[in-house]
Amino acid sequence: MRIRTQATRPYEDQRPGTSGLRKKVRVFQQPHYLENFVQSIFDCLDGLAGATLVLGGDGRYYNDQALQTILKMAAANGVGRVLVGRNGLLSTPAASCIIRKHGAFGGILLTASHNPAGPDGDFGVKYNVGNGGPAPESLTERIYARSRELRAYRILEVEDVALDRLGCFRLGAMTVEVIDPVADYAELMESLFDFDRIHALLADGFRIRFDAMHAVTGPYARELLVHRLGAPEESVVHATPLPDFGGGHPDPNLTYARPLVESLWREDAPDFGAASDGDGDRNMILGRGFFVTPSDSLALLAAHATCAPGYRDGLAGIARSMPTSRAADRVAERLGIPCYETPTGWKYFGNLLDAGRITLCGEESFGTGSNHIREKDGLWAVLFWLNLLAVARQPVAEVVKAHWRAYGRHYYTRHDYEGLDPEAAHRLIETLRAQLGKLPGRSGQGLRVLQAEDFRYEDPVDHSVSEHQGIRILFEPEARLVFRLSGTGTAGATLRVYVERFEPDPAQQDQDTQQALAPLIRLADEIAGIQRLTGRARPDVIT
Ligand code: G16
């Protein structure tokens, strides 16, 4: 076995976005493209020699080839040991769990999350550090800088290896250990939640439906919900991971998880429905004919946290991304604990979690998690909800409405305009930015602008600063609009408009969300000129 040093030329477009490097599969298939990025990662990791890395992915198209390439490159770059999920599978939360549990140096995750897969779909590579969380911006920027000057990469010349059987083998001087992708994660879940109580709830006829969307969570959900908690086999649907996710779009929201949503609105609907995404870190929670917004879900889990054994001692604090509704803030206030507001991106929660300042965190983009790992965690949220319901013994809708009565309701929606001309999208944000100083004091649709700003975050732990993290406009009476461009898309630009209004009056809390927010939605267009600048009359996705 020989280590080859392969000459290459830099690609200019390898800057990681909100969550790793995500591109079309065809971009990754360009000669040396994947290798360049992986070598750039390795070159930026001081202390990699002899260290242990975790490797796995969501099973999407091109995972197989990428796994082989990365293993050979790891061996050629002096990595000591790689823990790889059987058949290359690891959900993002399981990878985070395994990095932490085995004290690994870091991990490489092959996923483009909820983006569609297949030869015409997306692929992605993400590096996670030793705490199990996504690499911080300082590291991803170094990796990007390295990718722009890279002239060669190292790879072991060897045949592809089999990854379908558990056990260890050598690859050059490196050890490869093929591990069960589910075991460590399932054990962690059992330590956090009251499995006996959930088991009893299900045994009493409480019916659930979990849609794995042909992505990575199928094997995890089967093990946890069916084998350990006793749910009937048919409770987990689309449970086999497929390289193209069955042609679907594994994004657990009202648009892309339509079949699940429809099943929860039928006469014979189950009591509880949930879905996760491509790599298993997102979640959507549904009751019979009822959708729980991710922002409300975070607030509810926080308010009920002590019902789960893992959180019995209470919460140190909560964090949410800036565009996420402020429902969690109200819970934090009542609990007398801090609530932090971070930019979009799970990586911003890492320091707060490591410093013990927060226990729970979440994002409007269907992400919820806690200090048990350093990624958001889809099945964890599902189990937390089941634990909550096993204690409350009330329908999902009742639990949520009781919360609104106690804390007030934050009507909330997100409108996405996808595949926009990037120039037009950037012009829209720039135009908005330019008028921020003039907005305060202006009124429209019965609302008065209190404050308008470009969100800037200073990390309270390491004091690093992230600028331009979204435009937010605060109104009186309490309402808010946020505008930002997605950092995860791979085609054109996506404008996200986040709309929120607080309703304290229980008599007014039962309106349809889009209707309750209609004046604000109109105002968003008036202020930002969405239709004028993008040519779009309505959003592509509403959640
Ligand atoms: C990623 C990030 C999340 C972020 C989401 C949406 O999720 O991990 O923190 O909220 O993208 O980001 P954007 O609005 O920039 O598209 P995932 O599930 O794709 O890894």
Q: Could you characterize what this model shows?
A:
The protein is α/β, with parallel strands linked by helices and 543 residues long. It has 3 domains: 2-181, Alpha-D-Glucose-1,6-Bisphosphate, Chain A, domain 3, CATH 3.40.120; 185-407, 3-Layer(aba) Sandwich (Alpha-D-Glucose-1,6-Bisphosphate, Chain A, domain 3); 409-542, TATA-Binding Protein (2-Layer Sandwich). The chain has 18 helices and 27 strands. The strands form 6 sheets. The chain has a 7-stranded mixed sheet, with helices on both faces. Strands 20-21-24-25-26-19-27 form a 7-stranded antiparallel sheet. It has a 5-stranded mixed sheet with strand order 11-10-12-13-14, with helices on both faces. Strand 3 (52-57), helix 3 and strand 4 form a beta-alpha-beta unit. Helix 2 crosses helix 3, helix 2 (33-43) crosses helix 5 (137-147) and helix 7 crosses helix 13. The radius of gyration is 23 Å and the shape is globular. The mean pLDDT is 96. 1,6-di-O-phosphono-alpha-D-glucopyranose binds next to loops.
3D shape: globular
Could you tell me how far the N terminus lies from the C terminus, measured between alpha carbons in angstroms?
52 Å
Remind me, CATH topology of the largest domain?
Answer: Alpha-D-Glucose-1,6-Bisphosphate, Chain A, domain 3
CATH class descriptor name of the largest domain? Alpha Beta
Query: Considering the protein shown, what is the CATH homologous superfamily of the largest domain?
Result: Alpha-D-Glucose-1,6-Bisphosphate, subunit A, domain 3
Strand order of the largest sheet: 2-6-5-3-4-9-8
- Count of separate DSSP helical elements: 18
% residues in beta strands = 25-35%
Which consecutive residue ranges, at least 5 long each, have pLDDT under 50?
none
Number of strands: 27
CATH architecture of the largest domain: 3-Layer(aba) Sandwich
Name the ligand types.
1,6-di-O-phosphono-alpha-D-glucopyranose
User: Which structural class best describes the helix and strand composition?
Assistant: alpha/beta
Which range best describes the helical content: under 10%, 10-25%, 25-40%, 40-55%, 55-70% or over 70%? 25-40%
Mean pLDDT over the residues = 96
Largest beta-sheet details: 7 strands, mixed
Query: Can you tell me the number of structural domains?
Result: 3
Radius of gyration equals 23 Å
